[in-house]
Amino acid sequence: xxxxxxxxxxxxxxxxxxxxxxxxxxxxxxxxxxxxxxxxxxxxxxxxxxxxxxxxxxxxxxxxxxxxxxxxxxxxxxxxxxxxxxxxxxxxxxxxxxxxxxxxxxxxxxxxxxxxxxxxxxxxxxxxxxxxxxxxxxxxxxxxxxxxxxxxxxxxxxxxxxxxxxxxxxxxxxxxxxxxxxxxxxxxxxxxxxxxxxxxxxxxx
Length: 205
Hints:
The chain has one domain (2-203): Aminopeptidase (3-Layer(aba) Sandwich). It is 37% helix and 27% strand. The protein has seven helices and seven strands, in the order αβααβββαβαββαα. The chain has a seven-stranded mixed beta sheet, sandwiched between helices. β3 (80-91) and β4 form a beta hairpin. The chain is globular, with a radius of gyration of 17 Å.
């Protein structure tokens, strides 16, 4: 997969071996351990106490509507560590991003972009026609990341967050697969038009 190879190159340059991008197991004895790893990363990325509890992560991982994708590094002892994750929930033909996190020490290296673009490609392969998310209007780094993944601004929710900040609604259409090959994967998944649309939104704030 193009984005997995990109992520491997990013982490290789940082002397951090990567075991790959892969889905969280949705059943079995390791689900609780994966939920705990997600909770730990969530708390690091979203102080003061993270966005979701371990129980919420476990519920999401087990849900048939949820696709949970993780980026993992391998330590000297051979143990894996979760350094990035992207959760999406699909209802009918719409896939919505519900959680994205990358360890603070590894941001601005393409990991978030790889996770989002790969999640979009997997949602498309599973039959989703639309990919949606909400983001703070002032989160310029996230807006640029999502723009590079082909998402464009589709609307605004005034004073959506508790502190009164607006939320921007971003969306992308996921073209149907042709001949068994995902158009998003053939094109690298990241569409320049999305980036241009987000840049326009940032300049008009």
